[in-house]
């Protein structure tokens, strides 16, 4: 079912929508009749081409998740443009691999800010907007690093585990306001974050994955879009793992 099928086009906010999974989600939502706003640190050929193709249905803004104080202003711009917010997809994140004992405090602060603090602040601003128009949905993109320990990503893993905890608490708190909150927990899929995985490591991951392969951004996006759809209207507070079975 498309947004248009329910009446006036609904509005989605997608962070990190200029590339990777975020770009896939933006394209899919626009194709389903949503109006979409996305944030990223800089524009790209994709955001420029999408603005030209979709016109008033698409809004790109420059916003850096490293600056949480910028999030409420970005949300105000979306509401000013579209009049409402029905969906937030907290997709953007930053992965840095380094042994915990050598990670500088400044890097720790940056990783927590980008992966947890800014999504919290953005979710608060979007949820406030949703309460004025009858509710909505929040989909947080987490990581299997939040549920399975891996060497060199302790801070990133802690922040993503925080996102899953936020999901459960907000589902309790916002449910009475008709706002559903869920998270998608991707495993290894082809993206910019996995381009540095060596051929031997890819083969090791493939062998350990019951389905025998890495996933795709489209497959993760399928779950994001399901959680944004009327088909998931009685699902909230859940973290859905999309990993080909590697954590089972």
TrEMBL record:
Keywords, in A-Z order: Oxidoreductase
Pfam families: adh_short_C2
Presence of the UniProt keyword Zinc-finger in the record: no
Enzyme category, top tier: oxidoreductase
MF terms (GO), sorted A to Z: oxidoreductase activity
Matching InterPro entries: KR_dom, NAD(P)-bd_dom_sf, Sc_DH/Rdtase_CS, SDR_fam
All copies of domain Ketoreductase, residue ranges: 10-192
EC number(s) per entry: 1.1.1.-
Family: Belongs to the short-chain dehydrogenases/reductases (SDR) family.
Name this polypeptide is given: SDR family NAD(P)-dependent oxidoreductase
Organism: Nocardiopsis sediminis
Phylogenetic placement of the source organism: Bacteria, Bacillati, Actinomycetota, Actinomycetes, Streptosporangiales
């Amino acid at each position: 079912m498309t947004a248009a099928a329910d009446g006036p086009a609904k509005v989605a906010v997608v962070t990190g929508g200029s590339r990777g999974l975020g770009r896939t989600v933006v394209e899919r939502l626009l194709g389903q009749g949503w109006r979409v706003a996305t944030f990223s640190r800089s524009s790209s050929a994709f955001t420029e081409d999408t603005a030209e193709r979709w016109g008033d249905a698409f809004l790109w803004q420059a916003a850096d998740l490293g600056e949480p104080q910028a999030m409420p202003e970005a949300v105000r711009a979306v509401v000013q443009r579209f009049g409402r917010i029905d969906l937030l997809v907290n997709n953007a994140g930053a992965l840095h691999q380094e042994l915990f004992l050598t990670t500088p405090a400044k890097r720790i602060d940056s990783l927590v800010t980008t992966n947890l603090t800014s999504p919290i602040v953005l979710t608060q601003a979007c949820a406030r907007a949703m309460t004025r128009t009858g509710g909505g949905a929040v989909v947080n993109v987490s990581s299997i690093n939040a549920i399975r320990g891996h060497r060199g990503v302790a801070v990133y893993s802690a922040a993503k585990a925080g996102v899953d905890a936020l999901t459960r608490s907000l589902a309790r708190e916002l449910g009475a306001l008709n706002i559903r909150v869920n998270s998608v927990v991707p495993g290894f899929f082809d993206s910019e974050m996995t381009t540095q995985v060596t051929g031997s490591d890819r083969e090791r991951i493939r062998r350990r994955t019951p389905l025998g392969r890495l996933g795709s951004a489209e497959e993760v996006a399928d779950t994001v879009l399901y959680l944004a759809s009327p088909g998931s209207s009685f699902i909230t507070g859940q973290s859905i793992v999309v990993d080909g079975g590697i954590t089972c």
